[in-house]
Amino acid sequence: MVAISESQLEQIAAAVAKSGFDKAGRSAVQQQFADIKLTYCLLDEMGPKEPFREYDGFSLFLVGSSDHCLSLTNVLEEATGVVLAEE
């Protein structure tokens, strides 16, 4: 899996802010970033975890695959996926 860059992360956040969290918006963002694993959920489903970034109406969490196991990370260089959590 390819790591996510700062630029890609900002592009994802801008696309989500523009498209929203309805079915059509999620689909548009997923098509735009088809090479990146995106997962959508509600913020309260993330429990006490701290987001990597917070935006108006949603937060971004990074998913890494170090040690052959998927887990949340706050290290951008380890990120291979993004969780988009709607407030």
Structural summary, described in words:
- This protein has 87 residues and is an alpha+beta fold.
- It has one domain (6-86).
- Helices cover 28% and strands 31% of the residues.
- The chain is built from two helices and five strands.
- It has helices at 6-19, 23-32, and strands at 37-42, 53-55, 58-64, 71-73, 79-86.
- Strands 1, 2, 3, 4 and 5 form a five-stranded mixed β-sheet that branches.
- A hairpin with a 6-residue loop joins β3 (58-64) and β4.
- α1 runs antiparallel to α2.
- The longest helix is centred in the N-terminal third of the chain and has 14 residues, at 6-19.
- It starts with 5 loop residues before the first helix and ends with a strand.
- The mean pLDDT is 93.
Summarize the structure.
The protein has 87 residues and is of the alpha+beta class.
Structural domains: how many: 1
Helix content: 25-40%
The rounded Rg comes to 12 Å
Shape: globular
Largest sheet properties: 5 strands, mixed
> Given the structure, what is the number of helices?
2
pLDDT < 50 stretches: none
Count of β-strands: 5
Structural class: alpha+beta
For the terminal residues, how far apart are their CA atoms? 28 Å
Q: Could you tell me the strand content as a percent range? A: 25-35%
SSE pattern: HHEEEEE
Mean pLDDT: 93
